[in-house]
Amino acid sequence: MTASPQPYGRPAPLRRQLILKGLLPMTLVALALTVSLGVLHIRATGVESYAVARIQAVRIAASVSALASEDATRDALARALSRSAPTQQAVLHRQGDTDLVVDSGRRVGSGRPLRVWISTSQGELETVSDATVLHERRFAGMLMTLLLCVGVTAVFVVTRRALERDVVVPVERLRGRIDQFLHPRGTQSATPDDDALRAIDGLLDELVGLRARHDKAMADALRQRLQDIARHTHFVEQIGDHFRQPLQALALFVAGMQPGEDLRQRAVLGQMRSSLMRLNELLDGLLEMARFDAGAIEPTAADLIASDLFVRERAAIEMDATRLGVDVRWRGGRLPLRTDPGLFGEVLHRLVGNAVLSTPHGRVLVAIRRRGSTIRLEVRDNGMGLEPTLQARVFEEFTRLPGHPGYGLALAVARRIVDTLGGRIGVRSSPGRGTLFWVELDGAAAGSAAQTFALLGRHAAH
Description:
The chain is of the alpha+beta class. The chain has three domains: 1-194, no CATH class; 217-297, Helix Hairpins, CATH 1.10.287; 299-461, 2-Layer Sandwich (Heat Shock Protein 90). It has helices at residues 12-62, 70-82, 132-182, 196-255, 263-293, 306-324, 341-358, 388-391, 410-421, 449-461; strands spanning 87-93, 100-103, 114-119, 124-129, 302-305, 327-331, 336-339, 363-371, 374-381, 424-430, 434-441. The strands form three sheets. A five-stranded mixed β-sheet has the order 6-8-9-11-10, covered by helices on one side. A four-stranded antiparallel β-sheet has the order 2-1-4-3, covered by helices on one side. The protein has a two-stranded antiparallel ribbon with strand order 5-7. A hairpin with a 2-residue loop joins strand 8 and strand 9.
């Protein structure tokens, strides 16, 4: 039994390649960028809050005058504080005197405040600002950074699972299928710890080598088949020559016999001539089937009009049709065809001849129709018909139809001709109601109306 491939849920080597070399570096870069942006945002928030506090401290310091009294200075600081939110307190540190503290009355947050020192004409001015907003913005920045990192990590996890499901697992399955195809009775060509892509590459190399060996074997088989066909064809030709020569000599000998007035001798001579004729027909049929079976006949397509075939076939069966009183009708003579005239005419001759012999004092309709690019030949008669068991083997060798002379080779040869032309042949019959033989040839329709008129004009000229 074939060793089971590596479990599809644990494709470690390929997974490490995709994650360590592809997905993980991008995830780390995204996390680093996220943290950097968070740190920059927190630092920018602190710098912005400190800059606002310093601007307000400068504005408050500008309200302090060197010549003002303590009350005037207090009032000036109070007015400046009322316009400088969120600065809540100003402390003026005077040299040699107590500090002047002015409070705006706004509630100071519990967090660490922002303190700014500014030099004035009366001393150092210290401003105290509420840092609650700064702390909230910093916390929001940290929370945003954390959420972004969690999102990047979640995307990494989801993408890793998607890669395993949509890339790693199919690749491992493909590797397993190729390996099972190449080694149906052995073990895997690669161990489970090997690189999957490298293993697939090795298996593809094996496939290329297998294809090359297969092509070489097919070429050798084709060459051998062509040699067999040539040898078989030569053998068939030799058999035909060796049989035909004594038959022709015997026919000449029988033709030269003069029975005189003896009626018994006349009957024997007539039987000998009939037997020679049937023996020649049997030999011709067998040789023709042998040539088709050997593939020695190659069809040659040509443009023609159906009436060309109808004229030749009408002349060939006119004597039998007149003798049996059969009325033969022809339809579709103007239809252009592109097929082998000799082979298609032979099929037509065999089907029409079979219908005439099956329908004494009856009617036969021969029609060629077009269905897209397909040509359909139909030969319909109103004769005795065929039993279902006979319809199933009517195209087999030596299947004789009721009332037909010969050895039952005509329809078998017709089927081989149709197979050589790349078409289909069939029969539909009802006992006592007649029989329909049909032939379909794909791509045998000649096509355009201009081509049809050209063929008709050339046919009329001849």
